[in-house]
Specification:
Layout (H helix, E strand, L loop, with lengths): L1 H9 L4 H6 L2 E3 L1 H4 L8 H12 L4 E4 L1 H7 L8 E4 L3 H7 L3 E4 L5 E6 L2 E7 L18 E3 L5 E4 L5 H7 L7 E4 L4 E4 L3 H7 L1 E2 L5 H7 L2 H13 L2 E2 L1 H4 L2 H4 L8 H12 L4 H10 L9 H6 L2 H19 L6 H22 L4 H19 L5 H15 L7 H6 L4 H13 L5 H9 L5 H7 L32
Helix pairs in contact: 10-13, 10-14, 16-17, 16-21, 17-18, 17-19, 19-21, 21-22
The chain binds adenosine-5'-triphosphate and magnesium ion.
């Protein structure tokens, strides 16, 4: 009881760090200028300071600026409690349960404000937890983390040294507690504290290690890397929605290609993207995936958005093909073989990565359009042009062609056809051979609407 009281008042561990204080690095050394900080983050730190709190820009933004990269977003860390942050900003909202944060809004921008967290509890202290602010599972996994502390402790519970840098826009100083500036210079991704304990607390940190190593072009420090292969299976315990979010960050970061290879190199893909084994071991499939990831990375780097549904369509394409073939071989009609294959593959994948059901329509359309591109006679190509997913289906076809999974001639044809004039289009249409293209009259049942592929799928 008394111990808990002392802990609450003075903070728990990090005593030695707190005693020695942070290393304060002046702007002449790190080079990050106030002007590089988003105005919304500047306003947020200023307002918190004026209200009497400590406030720093923290995390990925400081790391990226230090490395001369453009930050994706700006996060702020403070000693103000979430409710106190709410009181400082009229336009703000408390979000999260597992990990409470406050969103501060200015214009269309949002700044995430986190209150300093207390560091991980030493093992013997865990029995002291009697409230539900921090909940730890038996295997050490942190289920909730809303125990607040000081900056020293906050730095200690962050994941990697380069992610534990605090920038004060007022003084333009960087405060570091774990050597992050030096590690950034050496391009080393190093976890803070004991790697096994930190990965057990939150296995998603292993995925983050792969993601940051790929994104920053860092190498993972050997001691950090060592336990990953053994602990990888802990990812099975992570809710599939969180895994999906983390995987999308990796796939849509502009560094998907390196990220996916890093995942596999660390053995982290088993429960998440099991198809990587069969794709990356097969030179032909590997080529398709390489093109898909490379093209997506290019798009993102050029400032375009990339669609998660498109990415999933690429990753699951061969699984779907395999399933389709099996269904056909077992005597199913083309259409039901395709329906069942698509459903089976999406459901199987959803068990490990909970991607939203609204993606299913797009993925299925991209897949089912592929056979329609083969049909280049009569009215069919014209109808295909007005299909709402024509563009996504066509982009997918281009990747297949570059990845040697479809004929380049077919992709080129579909590149020319939409822009050709009426005469040119007419000339481009492939004339049915004698006897071909005549529909046999059905004896029974309704006629299939003209122009629809045998395996086209109607999507609701
Ligand atoms: P990105 O550029 O992808 O946004 P980031 O480092 O900002 O990278 P965020 O997920 O936005 O990553 O998290 C912000 C900061 O919060 C991190 O830099 C890190 O200090 C801390 N953090 C995030 N997730 C974890 C985690 N699972 N364990 C420990 N610290 C974390
Ligand atoms: Mg961030």
């Amino acid at each position: 009881m008394i111990r808990r009281f002392i802990k609450k008042v003075f903070g728990k561990s990090a005593a030695s760090k707190a005693d020695s204080g942070p290393r304060i690095i002046p702007v002449e050394v790190h080079g990050i200028r106030r002007e590089q900080i988003h105005s919304c983050a500047l306003k947020t730190t200023r307002a918190l300071k004026e209200a009497g709190y400590s406030a720093f820009v923290v995390g990925g933004a400081v790391r990226d600026l230090l490395l001369g990269r453009e930050p994706k977003d700006f996060d702020v860390a403070t000693d103000a409690l979430p409710e106190q942050v709410r009181q400082v900003f009229r336009r703000s909202r408390l979000i999260g349960r597992r990990f409470q944060i406050v969103h501060v809004y200015c214009g269309a921008d949002t700044i995430e404000v986190t209150t300093y967290r207390a560091a991980s509890l030493p093992k013997e202290d865990e029995s002291d937890e009697d409230d539900d602010a921090r909940v730890t599972a038996e295997d050490g996994m942190l289920l909730r983390d809303n125990v607040f502390g000081n900056q020293a402790e906050d730095a200690e519970r962050r994941d990697f040294t380069v992610n534990a840098l605090y920038y004060d826009p007022e003084t333009e100083e960087v405060w570091e507690w774990h050597g992050g500036v030096e590690d950034a210079k050496k391009k080393v991704l190093r976890i803070i504290g004991d790697p096994i304990q930190r990965f057990r607390e939150d296995p998603v940190r292993m995925l983050r290690a792969a993601r940051f190593a790929a994104k920053l072009d860092f190498h993972i420090d050997p001691a950090t890397r060592a336990p990953i292969a053994e602990l990888a299976s802990m990812l099975e315990r992570i809710p599939s929605a969180r895994l999906f979010d983390e995987m999308m960050k990796l796939l849509l970061s502009g560094h998907a290609e390196r990220g996916v290879r890093q995942l596999r190199a660390e053995g982290l893909h088993h429960g998440i993207l099991p198809m990587l084994d069969t794709i990356l071991d097969d030179p032909e499939r590997q080529k398709f995936l390489h093109v898909a990831l490379h093209d997506t990375d290019e798009r993102v780097r050029q400032g375009h958005s990339a669609s998660p549904a498109f990415m999933l369509a690429c990753l699951l394409w061969f699984d779907m093909q395999g399933e389709l073939k099996r269904n056909r071989n077992s005597g199913q009609s083309d259409q039901s073989a395709l329906y069942d294959a698509m459903d089976a593959v999406l459901e199987r994948q959803r068990r490990v990565l909970a991607f939203p059901r609204r993606f299913d329509g797009t993925i299925k359309e991209i897949w089912s359009l592929q056979s329609r591109f083969e049909q280049r006679s009569g009215a069919r190509p014209f109808r295909l042009l007005s299909h709402p997913r024509f563009r996504a289906g066509y982009d997918f076809l281009l990747i297949r062609a570059k990845g040697e999974d479809a004929a380049q001639e077919l992709a080129d044809w579909w590149t020319r056809f939409p822009d050709a004039n009426d005469n040119e289009r007419e000339a481009m249409l492939i004339k049915p051979q004698a006897g071909e293209g005549k529909t046999k009259r059905r004896k029974r049942g309704p006629r299939k609407p003209a122009g629809e592929s045998a395996i086209e799928v109607k999507l609701g």
